[in-house]
Amino acid sequence: MRLITHNMLSSNIKGVTNGFPLRIEAEKVVEKPVEIDPKFLKNMFVKIDWKALVDASRIMGYADLPDEANPSMLELDEFLQKFHHALLELHLEEGALVCPQTDRRFPVIKGIPNMLLHEDELFLQRGVSHGGGGTPKTQSRTFKYLDLNTSLSCA
Amino acid sequence: MWFLCVFYHRLLDYRKPEVESLAELFGAFGDVQNGEFCSREKSLEWRIPLYHHTDSPFHLVNIPSEHVARKIANRSILVKGMYELWGEGSSYEELKESILSYPDERKLPYLESNSTFKITVDTFGKAIGQQKQKELIQGLSYIPFKGRVNLKNPEHNFWLMDTDDYGANNGLPPIAKKRIFFGREVGGADRKLLPTYQLKSRTYLGPTAMDAEMAFLMANQALAAPGKLVYDPFVGTGSVLVAAAHFGAMTMGADIDIRVVRDGRGPDCNVWSNFKQYGLPMPIGLLRADNNLPPWRSGLKEVFDAIICDPPYGVRAGGRKSGGRKLLKGAVEPYIVPDDKRTDHIPSTAPYSLVECVHDLLDLAAKMLVMGGRLVFFYPVLREVDCIENHFPDHPCFKLIAVSEQILSYRYSRVLLTMEKTCPYTEEVAEAARIKHIEFRENHVKWLEEGNLHSAVFSHVDPQLTVAVDSKFSKDPKPKYRGKYV
Prior knowledge:
The complex is a heterodimer of chains A (155) and B (486). Chain A has 155 residues and is an alpha+beta fold. Chain A has one domain: N-terminal domain of TfIIb (Single Sheet). Helix content of chain A is 30%, strand content 16%. The longest helix of chain A is centred in the middle third of the chain and has 13 residues, at 77-89. The radius of gyration of chain A is 20 Å and the shape is globular. The model of chain A is unreliable at 126-155 (pLDDT under 50). Chain B is α/β, with parallel strands linked by helices and 486 residues long. Chain B has helices spanning 12-25, 66-75, 92-101, 104-107, 130-138, 193-197, 212-221, 239-246, 258-263, 271-277, 325-329, 354-368, 427-443, 445-448, 452-458, 463-474, and strands spanning 2-7, 45-47, 58-62, 79-89, 116-124, 148-149, 156-163, 180-187, 229-232, 250-255, 285-288, 304-309, 319-322, 349-352, 369-382, 398-407, 412-421. In chain B, strand 16 (398-407) and strand 17 form a beta hairpin. The two termini of chain B are 30 Å apart. Mean pLDDT of chain B is 85; it is low at 465-482. The chains are: A alpha+beta (155), B alpha/beta (486). Chains A and B meet through helix 1, helix 2, strand 3, strand 4 and helix 5 of A and helix 9, strand 11, helix 11, helix 12 and helix 13 of B. Chain B: Residues 51-191 form the tRNA (guanine(10)-N(2))-methyltransferase TRMT11 N-terminal domain.
């Protein structure tokens, strides 16, 4: 997992309001060289949460990113290199991402974060069913649209 | 400037949209480099040559410059060639007249003595022998070619294209009269890509890996290019992202199945190895996530330039989402995972119906695509039931740009939908989208039920009914010719 992915992810356990940034538990960090693409970096810069990237890169053992950054720095080759290295070349190969609010660990194995939730993390409280209503017999007709109901409550 | 655009005679519905998309990508509708998004009408002007019809491989298209036309043709998959048309006619006499009347200042720069050239005879719907081809080429002696012939690597390629008199055997409705074209080649598709990327030589395959040609078409519809970030929420073996990466885009993918996305079939047979095999840059992110509950941080908006995917629609593979069936129905309370089992717990999943999946996809795309970004995905259609024009899911943030049908069987097709984000995502838009979705769902009750599509495609036909069905089909007013099957 590169830090660009880390910068985009948050804990989406129901009820968690501060799921970002996920804390990194690094067991194995590797560096994988990637060809630099200045256009892509410039596109991404405005979308990146800078503080989260700086903190994450330090945990991964790379301390060269400045605390503050602004778009004018993208003209400097040196800065671009550092940004590129932190964003795309540092890999968390083994470890975990930890929800800052609940301490739930999302494991990262072979570089792939597993963001799938457990059954008891899908709903706001224990036993609250988003389907509601009765429980008619045929499975297909009563299939509930979790997203519809949740989008109502989140909106 | 008008060009003769000759297509490969396949995937007819995909041909013009591909050219239109590439025209957008290469700036035929004005420069969009500054990130300024404008929603003005963006389409090319098309004409059909005399005596031809829409399904013919020959089209005339107006493109601002030869430079853009060349870029479009060279990047495309379905354009056999883009030509500056020097002449056309229904007989070789008419052709001669037409070529002779084409302005000299357009012709002479390509006929100079220090240049090299080649003339190719091509036909559609018939074959011409070597001897006859030679005669036809020699018959062009009224054009003052001064350069040297070079068959291997000529500077200028000229094409003489002949069509059949009568389209009885080429699967198209008959054309009234044949047409002969002569033109200078401006560019053409690099079909060598296809054998390079063909699935049979790919290491890691799944049951629904996307065919290479289609994957490239999808990437073209999505305007994949260097500097862009392309996301596939149903990445599987990565077959769609491979095409996007080939065109220089950064790629990112997610899948709910950890075995597919992480483990593959071993250290040298997984999603990563599929990119390595072609020397492409690896995806910048792969993760396991549920499209129904996407794990993106809320502050993250408009990050993807395109979302391309082939959602699971339950015909060859069914979708899954988090939560058990009973849990989602409210019949049972959520299983509380004991603390000591949390690390290795495998969460249960439930079937993920097509409409729900498409709704989530549209919602995600509306939130996460940049303005002008594209959502490209396949949507299944039952051929007997639906007339395909007005049954597609839509969203207030998106404008439907292209609808391309690929017929898969007698009973069903899949349609590649290309949508462009034309309006920013707001709470109000989300609400409007939700209402639209409910309407859509009500109109498609039959479809949203899990398994129905599968049975509609695969169920056994009652022999007693077959007769009635047959007679119904023979009365079908729509002409059924091979057009879309090719």
